[in-house]
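Dear colleagues,

As part of the handover before I leave the project, I'm documenting each prediction I ran so the next person doesn't have to rerun anything. This entry is a single chain, and its sequence is reproduced below.
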Amino acid sequence: MKSGLKVFAPATVANVGVGYDILGFAIDKPGDEIIVRQGKKKGLVITKITGCKKKLPLEVEKNTAGYGAQKLLEHLGLEDEPIEMEIHKKMPFGSGLGSSAASAAGGVYAINEYLRRPLFSKELARFAVLGESVADGAIHGDNVIPSLLGGIVLIRDNDTFDFIKIPVPPGLHAFVIYPHVEIMTRDARAVLADQVELKKHIRQNGNLGALISGFYTSNLELIQRSLQDHIIEPQRAKLVPHFYELQNIALTNGAMNYTISGAGPSMFGFCLNSLIGENILEKLKSHLADKGIESDFYISTINTTGTYKY
């Protein structure tokens, strides 16, 4: 009889300003917990979901953790293997921190560990991406692959799951604030224009290329110069209450940048140390409280571990 196990899959920041749908990184917390154990009947069964206020389905094919795990089992020819899965959501829905991605990453990782690692972690990426697609109907790995593998990830091509792990500059910290308002990914995608002005496209590509170079060379000044989003942030800022006021507070208190995390409403920035980040977050939280909005915040170095068993 196989013993059960528990894994943790971390939250992520996607887009990183200039890398819409192709760039993301993992942070230490929050995250989701997945438990798997031997089942009582053939096939994968989700027996329990907590922390979701009954918003998530137990049906495997409709659940991000379940669907990716099921596709992995089918790939291995083990779809009849009796397995029970529990999902414990420990991060908010619609937060812009990759909630559905963390579940998808945790689901495939847990199954692979339970089966004694038939695949390398990198090979699990395609199944995790398929799992997350259940949530918003899109194939993109900028949340789920960093959650699975950790670090900073550049997606060269989403359709073929072609991605590159980017070096993490030492000492770089990320701060994240999550205001308690809800923005669903589908709605955040709906506000985006289908066409991009050529001049903005050129500027954005220049910033993305320079940002990647800054990560490889640990050039923090270049990273800071490059984190200017000319395409997505201007369209989505109206969805996030008081965005530009908050951005000004962050930038005038030592943030290297300040923009929307994923689809929002969470926002993030890089800073040089945790003290700077903590000071910024206290000011942001106070400003939101003055506007009648509760918030949570997190500060983290780039999480290079990703999903892990514990």
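The mean pLDDT is 95. The two ends are 20 Å apart (CA to CA).

All the best with the project,
I.
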